[in-house]
Write a structure and sequence with these properties.
Number of strands of chain B: 14
Strand order of the largest sheet of chain B: 6-7-8-3-9-10
Number of domains of chain A: 1
Largest sheet of chain A: none
Radius of gyration of chain A: 19 Å
Strand content of chain A: under 5%
Structural class of chain A: mainly alpha
Order of helices and strands of chain A: HHHHHHHHHH
CATH architecture of the largest domain in chain B: 3-Layer(aba) Sandwich
Oligomer: heterodimer
CATH superfamily of the largest domain in chain B: P-loop containing nucleotide triphosphate hydrolases
Distance between the termini of chain A: 26 Å
Shape of chain B: elongated
Number of helices of chain A: 10
Number of helices of chain B: 10
């Protein structure tokens, strides 16, 4: 294991975050605060309790999940795409590092940022609504697993993309709609049976639901189904990344 | 894989090849055959210049050895280790300075060089980084962001990054492209001093003058094939021609018949005679030529000799194969 290389890449990526602290941390916190003002205070005050908690508290897990999904993807995809774009990828490819070490360093750094941001958003939310976390360890587990899975997914997008447009394509056209339709702002129980059934094919539903269960002890789907879906998504992303490195897809001729 | 003696040793003796390439072929996905059955040994501690026109396969060859391009058929060993099976050992022995000035523009010089050291598996060592930066006259710029540096300085940073992990082999792909003459000469001196510390250097260049100035051995690659590998001095002796130019006091319209056996050319304007001869031959015929000139009463104003350059040898070899 080339631990020095993993550390070098990880530190480099984390340093990039702190160089761009406004974009990396302050921006998601402000966005989330705005969501709480609009949905929690303005609209939420007219909505009755859901799952035994106020609407403002109900949307906290969904908002955290939505933020870490998008940030994990953008951080990890940009982290590996930028060296490809500038040509500095030559150094990574010529270094004595294994595929696993490269993925561990980039994805580890992106996931770390997501977990930090998730916790910062949680702290921000606590300023707006009274929070209750019934299963804190499960909450942390979901936070870490989701950050890792979607950072890995972002890493795949970064390897696949050969232009800035492609880098934004999947997050905007696929991930964002799935996140909005994943029960961030509502319980899927509120939907007509047909849409309820359709949304069970949306993996984000399982993430949000499991994460929400850790907060309020109630969920749209079984919590074990949520854990299983997250683990399956993680395994799928690992398999794709492994194949990309083995074949040199979009990396080596 | 071609066996080399003591193939598992990481410290080959000076005469052992530190890089051994055997029957290496590479065809890209678009069908372009970049390398055709290339075999080449690079000796430890030498400066090896790989010359070839654009698209000859120089960069493909370097990129395969360094791990940037997947090898096709054949084998490559570095320090006796296979570049695929033992990639950690081979890559940690190699430093690469690419053709393009590719660096993270927002990093400081010292940060990017330290990053390279870590990436190649070495623990942080600020003393070594300082030594490298000082040797490349970058110490004063260590806190500057890369994007604020001139092109020549950026090239030095790339070299510093490649040297950060104390490699045994340094690949320089067109190291002085776009660099002014003064800086180019500084770089040549730096490369020589690196060689003196035992680093093996492989450089590709378009400036044949660069290879002539620095290389111990020269390899010429054309259309994916190595057409010649030779000690530079031997090559220049074997294939180099010498030219004798005799400036005449009085121009002549035609060459006298008595001088026809000397293979002379009459320069344009008739004011000089030009003789091309093999300097390494036992009999160059120069004595006889001067005697015949004296016999004909031809007065000489000046005499000049000129050795053909590596560039002329290179162009001649490529034309021969065209």
């Amino acid at each position: 294991m080339n631990i020095h290389a993993v550390r070098a890449i990880y530190r480099f990526e984390m340093a990039r975050t702190f160089r761009t602290i406004l974009q990396s941390i302050v921006s998601p916190v402000i966005s989330t605060a705005l969501y709480f003002v609009v949905f929690g205070a303005a609209i939420g005050s007219r909505i009755p309790e859901i799952g035994g908690v106020s609407y403002g508290a109900f949307i906290v897990p969904g908002l955290i999940m939505m933020s870490i999904l998008t940030l994990s993807i953008s951080n990890a995809s940009f982290g590996i795409y930028f060296p490809k774009f500038t040509g500095t990828i030559y150094e990574l490819l010529s270094a004595p590092v294994s595929h696993f070490e490269i993925v561990a360093a980039y994805v580890g750094a992106a996931a770390t940022k997501s977990v930090i941001i998730g916790l910062v958003i949680l702290a921000t939310a606590a300023l707006f609504v009274p929070l209750r976390i019934e299963h804190p360890l499960v909450m942390l587990l979901f936070l870490v697993l989701t950050s890792l899975s979607f950072s890995l997914f972002g890493f795949i997008i970064g390897l696949w993309a050969d232009g800035f447009e492609k880098l934004q394509l999947i997050p905007l056209l696929v991930v964002m709609p799935l996140a909005f339709l994943g029960g961030t702002f509502y319980s899927i129980e509120m939907l007509p049976p047909f849409w309820h059934a359709v949304l069970l094919f949306n993996p984000v539903v399982y993430l949000v639901s499991g994460f929400r269960w850790s907060f309020i002890g109630a969920s749209d789907v079984n919590v074990w189904a949520s854990v299983l879906m997250t683990a399956l998504f993680l395994a799928g992303c690992l398999a794709i990344t492994g194949w990309m490195f083995r074949t040199g897809y979009k990396l080596k001729n | 894989m071609r066996p080399i003696s003591d193939a598992r040793s990481t410290k080959p003796s000076p005469m052992q090849p530190i890089i051994s390439i055997s029957n290496l072929s590479k065809t890209y996905a678009n069908g372009f055959e970049a390398l055709k059955n290339v075999s080449l040994d690079v000796r430890k501690g030498e400066i090896f210049a790989l010359l070839g026109p654009n698209g000859a396969g120089k960069t493909t060859l370097i990129n395969i050895v360094c791990g940037l391009v997947n090898p096709g058929t054949g084998s490559v060993t570095v320090g006796g280790h296979d570049i695929v099976a033992d990639y950690r050992k081979t890559r940690s022995m190699i430093g690469l300075v690419p053709q393009e000035l590719s660096m993270d523009a927002f990093e400081t010089v010292v940060a990017t060089v330290s990053f390279s050291r870590g990436l190649f598996g070495k623990p942080a060592d600020s003393a070594h980084v300082e030594k490298v930066l000082k040797s490349l006259s970058l110490w004063d710029k260590r806190k500057d962001k890369v994007m604020t540096l001139s092109g020549g300085m950026k090239r030095r940073v790339l070299i510093a990054k490649a040297l950060a992990h104390e490699p045994d082999i340094l690949f320089l792909d067109e190291p002085t492209a776009g660099v002014d003459v003064e800086l180019r000469r500084d770089m040549w001196a730096m490369v020589r001093s690196l060689r003196d510390t035992g680093v093996t250097i492989i450089l590709t260049t378009h400036y044949i003058e660069e290879a002539q100035e620095m290389a111990d051995r020269v390899g010429i690659i054309s259309k994916g094939e190595i057409i010649l590998v030779e000690n530079k001095d031997v090559l220049m002796r074997k294939l180099g021609k010498k030219q004798l130019r005799i400036e005449l006091r009085e121009p002549m319209a035609t060459l006298p018949a008595s001088l026809s056996s000397h293979g002379l050319d009459l320069a344009e304007g008739g004011d000089a005679l030009v003789s091309t001869y093999d300097a390494s031959a036992d009999r160059t015929g120069i004595n006889g030529l001067f005697q015949d000139l004296a016999r004909e009463g031809i007065a000489i104003r000046d005499v000049e000799t000129r050795q053909s350059t590596l560039e002329e040898i290179f162009v001649g070899l490529l034309e021969e194969r065209a």
